[in-house]
Q: What sequence folds into this?
């Protein structure tokens, strides 16, 4: 057996709760022992199989067996494991109800693998390097990247485990900025406060909003330094001027398509020598990032990436959108209020990571060499969109591209929304990956 007899009895109880009185207890014992001892099936899978076989509810199972991270797959429930925290990042998100919520995310590791995690509640006071025991977690997958989710029913507690504690898995010790510490824009992460940074204002625009029934003018745009660019939002008129360079103190960071640097009432600006920073012209062609950098910093408002197209995903080519909401319609949706559109969804890889990249109608027309009306006629002539999809795959799959646009990273992975798309020089993806890993190790 994989567990002692006492533990085994608790799993029998768990199965009984999940299937009710449909089966005698001795029959459950016999089946479970046969699955585990004779067939060599792990206990969690055996329990779920028995419950499904007898028309019970697998979601009602409360106890799982402890797994190594390499054994954890996508779409699993009630997962138990021990791991070492590699990194912890605080993140503010907006829920579907429109309220603000603080979550924590990062990586965990053991001797077999490293996985991403998301802790969906406040009060996560653990640090990188801590060893934790996790019960009743669940997993989701996006772009083949598994994320362990720790929700309301999950129990996370620190434990003493010498083997895991001494395991060298590249722990990121510093997860937040020190008060008043001067940072570069590339290192900003949502949730940071009391941020100091030297930057150049690239552009400024005003926007009218309503706060608690009162009209208010806010300022937004983009800023840059030697490391890259990001968006900013200023809730007070600090008389900042596009093109000028400043040292900014007591700013904070929220998230809007990547880090959004926020200037409040107590933020201070001091004009500095502009020669310390790149000129406005230096930013015209964009700042290049790796996909791993974009994922780590939760995206960027203006980024350039170069890589290869691995696959063209379903939902590419000719699509239809709801005229009012602009939402893409699925098969079976009412198309009375639909308008045609073009787009391409790609799996894009640069050797450091991968993302889902979206090409809009303008770029899709450029790739295909035909406009929307021509695509509609082409689909009609070929009795379906399969031929159009083949043209897209022939034009893009395994081709090197240079994309410029904005990126965002969430619990579903990294997404890149291209504003422009051009051919790129051939990239040796394996070599780029080796160089990237070597830089991390160094």
A:
């Amino acid at each position: 057996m994989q567990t002692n007899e006492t533990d085994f009895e608790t799993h029998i109880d768990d199965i009984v709760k999940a299937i009710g009185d449909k089966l005698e207890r001795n029959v459950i014992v016999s089946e479970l022992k046969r699955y585990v001892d004779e067939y060599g099936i792990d206990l969690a899978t055996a329990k779920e199989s028995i419950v499904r076989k007898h028309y019970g509810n697998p979601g009602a199972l409360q106890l799982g067996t402890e797994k190594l991270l390499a054994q954890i797959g996508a779409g699993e429930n009630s997962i138990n494991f021990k791991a070492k925290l590699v990194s912890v990042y605080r993140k503010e998100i907006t829920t579907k109800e429109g309220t603000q919520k603080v979550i924590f995310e990062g990586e965990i590791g053991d001797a077999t693998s490293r996985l991403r995690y998301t802790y969906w509640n406040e009060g996560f006071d653990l640090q990188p390097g801590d060893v934790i025991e996790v019960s009743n977690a669940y997993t989701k997958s996006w772009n083949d990247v598994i994320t362990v989710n720790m929700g309301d029913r999950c129990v996370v507690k620190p434990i003493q485990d010498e083997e895991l504690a001494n395991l060298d898995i590249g722990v990121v010790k510093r997860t937040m900025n020190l008060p008043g510490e001067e940072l570069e824009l590339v290192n900003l992460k949502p949730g940071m406060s009391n941020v100091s940074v030297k930057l150049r204002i690239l552009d400024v625009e005003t926007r009218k909003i309503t706060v608690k029934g009162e009209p208010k003018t806010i300022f937004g745009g983009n800023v840059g330094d030697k490391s890259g660019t990001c968006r900013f939002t200023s809730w007070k008129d600090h008389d900042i001027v596009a093109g000028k360079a400043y040292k900014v103190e007591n700013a904070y960071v929220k998230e809007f398509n990547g880090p959004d640097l926020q200037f409040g009432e107590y933020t201070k600006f001091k004009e500095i020598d502009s020669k310390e920073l790149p000129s406005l012209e230096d930013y015209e062609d964009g700042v290049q990032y790796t996909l791993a950098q974009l994922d780590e910093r939760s995206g960027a408002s203006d980024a350039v990436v170069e890589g290869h197209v691995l696959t063209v995903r379903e939902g590419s080519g000719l699509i239809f959108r709801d005229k009012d909401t602009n939402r893409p319609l699925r098969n079976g949706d009412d198309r009375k209020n639909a308008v045609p559109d073009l787009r391409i969804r790609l799996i894009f890889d640069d050797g450091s990571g991968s993302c889902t990249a979206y090409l809009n109608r303008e770029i899709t027309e450029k790739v295909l060499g035909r406009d929307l009306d021509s695509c509609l006629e082409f689909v009609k002539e070929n009795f379906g969109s399969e031929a159009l999809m083949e043209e897209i795959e022939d034009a893009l799959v395994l081709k090197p591209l240079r994309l410029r646009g904005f990126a965002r990273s969430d619990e579903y992975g990294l997404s890149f929304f291209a504003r422009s798309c051009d051919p790129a020089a051939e990239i040796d993806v394996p070599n780029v990956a080796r160089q990237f890993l070597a830089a991390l190790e160094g």
The domain at 66-165 is CATH 2.40.50.140 (OB fold (Dihydrolipoamide Acetyltransferase, E2P)). The longest helix spans residues 5-19.
